[in-house]
Specification:
5-stranded antiparallel beta sheet, 126 residues, alpha+beta, 3 helices
């Protein structure tokens, strides 16, 4: 019984972080608009890649892949199920200022961009 209570508490606490990271990713899409290149460099660091098209420059960030393993009860044993969540953040600049933040992510169905939260966390005001 004690193990069940501890497992339930761990799942609930993990869920709190999960939604907080989704809120952070959502907030960055609004709060980062208007930031300068220098501000983005200060809060996200150097991009993994960049591209220029017409009047826009896009900086790409990645590397926040997370593998989550859950133990599922299977009779008297437990079965481990793993899933990898990925995020690539793309910050678009025009005239030296952020005009758009978008994500290519594979997260959970109810919080698809939560895995992007840690990438942009330092750029978001609390």
């Amino acid at each position: 019984m004690k193990r069940l209570v501890l497992l339930t508490a761990a799942v609930v606490l993990a869920g709190c972080s999960y939604y907080a990271d989704q809120r952070t990713a959502d907030a960055a899409k609004v709060q980062m608009v208007g930031q300068s290149r220098a501000q983005v460099l200060a809060c996200m660091g150097a991009p993994a890649g960049s591209a220029i098209a017409d009047t826009s420059e896009v900086w790409s960030y990645g590397g926040n892949d997370q593998t989550v393993t859950m133990l599922m009860p299977a009779g008297t044993a437990a079965l481990g199920v793993s899933h990898t969540y990925t995020c690539r953040a793309h910050v678009t600049f025009q005239e030296g200022r952020v005009v758009n933040v978008r994500y290519q992510s594979r997260g959970a169905f109810d919080a698809p961009d939560y895995v992007c939260g840690p990438l942009v966390q330092a750029c978001v005001r609390r």
